[in-house]
TrEMBL record:
<keyword id="KW-0456">Lyase</keyword>
<dbReference type="GO" id="GO:0006631">
    <property type="term" value="P:fatty acid metabolic process"/>
</dbReference>
<dbReference type="InterPro" id="IPR036188">
    <property type="entry name" value="FAD/NAD-bd_sf"/>
</dbReference>
<protein>
    <submittedName>
        <fullName>Oleate hydratase</fullName>
        <ecNumber>4.2.1.53</ecNumber>
    </submittedName>
</protein>
<dbReference type="GO" id="GO:0050151">
    <property type="term" value="F:oleate hydratase activity"/>
</dbReference>
<dbReference type="InterPro" id="IPR010354">
    <property type="entry name" value="Oleate_hydratase"/>
</dbReference>
<dbReference type="Pfam" id="PF06100">
    <property type="entry name" value="MCRA"/>
</dbReference>
<dbReference type="GO" id="GO:0071949">
    <property type="term" value="F:FAD binding"/>
</dbReference>
């Protein structure tokens, strides 16, 4: 048997396609655990900013924007904490990002008193409303091996009444599940977060960053990488690769990047490493304005690249399963910046929720609107007299209750008008919206990772026969872990780096809280509420 000897890590380069959290984490693990010099690492990002879905931008004059907010769970995010325990915070470099998060969550614990509302009244979301048949369906799901579920949809597994329970509304609006999504992903979530099952309605197990995730996590990680010489190639859209097959496997030999100056070719040595984020939940996003609705895009660069390289390499997965049904994978969010804080104060009073407590869903909304009022300030550069909140809707193609058009066709102003109707303050329009800016964001692939799938539709992190290519992010298969989490991306990066460098280090296993007798007992009791 021939043994291939790679050059020392100092003589190898690493190329990351995409600048999301998976790539940044991968670069950090190469430096921290693989001892690769930072100057050997190159991150190619089509935008002028890194961070991917963990975004946060703007200022009080032009308004703020966050397409979404990531939530965390201390018992479950093993790889994420492993990384951010070693990344210094921007505010105090003697303390880690995780230490700052720990302190913030001790002083701002989540406890949602008003998780669900209907026609201005608080719903007791702790009364899950599960029937005997519902509980049997959940138990049967947990006992069914994932491969036997195939591409079964949630609505095919549970009866229609299940989708009208408080439990489903709480579950769906925390995790963004739709009835047509994969029941196999629900099964994974139930195992991964079974310890949170009894308190889903209060969100007590959810932890957050001090500011938005870009300010709190991406910026310190980027600075740490830059300080070590990692190069960030902004405005570089990788459109294709030369992948050469041989008896020893498949080897990436070249990357092709589109830039403002034209096409650039990046040579890749056989001993170099290539890490590709195949698919992106925020790819193709379109941003609207106070008087402009966002457009709907139906493709994106990450998807086109994945399709290109998977065409002749079936072990690289099946991107069309996730990317070719935008009507089932899109939803819309909106960020509201308030110099006039009347609406902000009204939401706090109306929901009886202090900023930072949780997530409120308005069940009477045709769009299924939810709002999140984070602890203020939510941006590092946010003045005390400016407030920010965020919201989203799972059904943007339905006609509103107040605004007689689909959310997808609405301007930011119209979205706020619809929200004010559900907040029962529409009679105060337009003065309550004076000096308020709402920026809508349409995300065509935001839940693409939940699409019904078969084994093999997501490639392995390091596919069989791959000599120098690994996949990162939400569309690389990792048994037992759950997509739509920062943890899934960071775990993929750690797995890829450790395997590609053959490091004598173990990726922290997915915790098995579901095996603890106390967790099981508490879950059973909650299922009967």
């Amino acid at each position: 048997m021939t043994i291939h000897q790679h050059p020392h890590v100092t003589d190898r380069d690493a190329h990351f396609v995409g600048g999301g959290i998976a790539s940044l984490a991968g670069a950090a693990f190469l430096v921290r655990d693989g001892n690769m010099p930072g100057e050997n690492i190159h991150v190619y990002e089509k935008l002028d900013v890194v961070g991917g879905a963990m975004d946060g931008a703007g200022d009080p004059d032009e308004a703020y924007l966050i397409r979404g907010g990531r939530m965390f769970n201390y018992p479950a995010y093993e790889c994420t904490w492993d990384l951010f325990e070693t990344i210094p915070s921007l505010e105090d470099d003697s303390r880690s990002v995780k230490a700052v998060m720990d302190e913030f969550n001790e002083t701002h614990p989540s406890y949602a008193k008003t998780r669900l509302m209907h026609e201005g009244e608080r719903i007791d979301a702790g009364e899950y409303g599960l029937t005997r048949q519902h509980r049997q369906s959940i138990a049967r799901l947990l006992l069914t091996p994932e491969p036997r579920l195939g591409d079964t949809r949630i609505e095919e597994w549970f009866d229609e009444s299940f989708l009208e329970t408080n439990f489903w509304y709480v579950w769906a609006t925390i995790f963004a599940f739709q009835p047509w999504h994969s029941v196999a992903e629900v099964r994974r979530y139930m195992y991964r977060f079974l310890h949170e099952f009894p308190q889903l309605h209060t969100m007590e197990g959810i932890d957050r960053t001090k500011y938005n995730q870009y300010d709190s996590m991406i910026l310190p990680l980027r600075r740490w990488l830059e300080d070590r010489g990692v190069s960030f190639e902004y405005g570089h859209e990788v459109t294709d690769m030369d992948i050469v097959p041989s008896r020893t496997g498949r080897t990436v030999e070249r990357l092709y990047c589109e830039t403002d100056s034209g096409t650039e070719t990046v040579p890749v040595e056989p001993s170099d490493l290539v890490f590709v984020t195949n698919g992106s939940m925020t790819d193709g996003s379109s941003i609207g304005g106070m008087d402009e609705a966002p457009e709907l895009n139906e493709t994106g660069a990450s998807w086109e690249l994945w399709k290109s390289i998977a065409e002749d390499n079936p072990q690289f997965g099946n991107p069309s399963v996730f990317a070719d049904n935008v009507t089932e994978t899109k939803w819309e969010s909106f960020t509201v910046t308030l110099h006039n804080t009347d609406l902000f104060d009204h939401i706090v009073d109306f929901t009886n929720e202090e900023p930072g407590n949780g997530l409120v869903t308005y069940l009477g909304s045709n769009w299924l609107l939810s709002t999140v009022v984070a602890a203020q300030p939510h941006f590092a550069n946010q003045p005390d007299d400016v407030k920010v909140f965020w919201g989203y809707a799972l059904f943007p193609d339905r006609e509103g209750n107040y605004v007689e058009k689909p959310m997808s066709e609405c301007t930011g102003r119209e979205i706020l008008q619809e929200l004010c109707y559900h907040l029962q303050c529409e009679e105060r329009l337009p003065e309550i919206l004076d000096d308020v800016t709402c920026i809508p964001a349409m995300m065509p692939f935001i839940t693409a990772h939940f699409q019904p799938r078969e084994p093999g539709d997501r490639p392995d992190v390091v596919p069989d026969g791959s000599n120098n290519l690994a996949f990162l992010g939400q569309y690389a298969e990792q048994p037992r872990d759950v997509v739509f989490t920062v943890e899934y991306s960071v775990r993929s990066a750690m797995t890829a780096v450790y395997e590609m460098l053959d490091l004598d280090r173990e990726v922290p296993p997915v915790s098995k809280h579901y095996r603890k007798p106390g967790v099981i007992a508490d879950t059973v009791r909650a299922a009967y509420r």
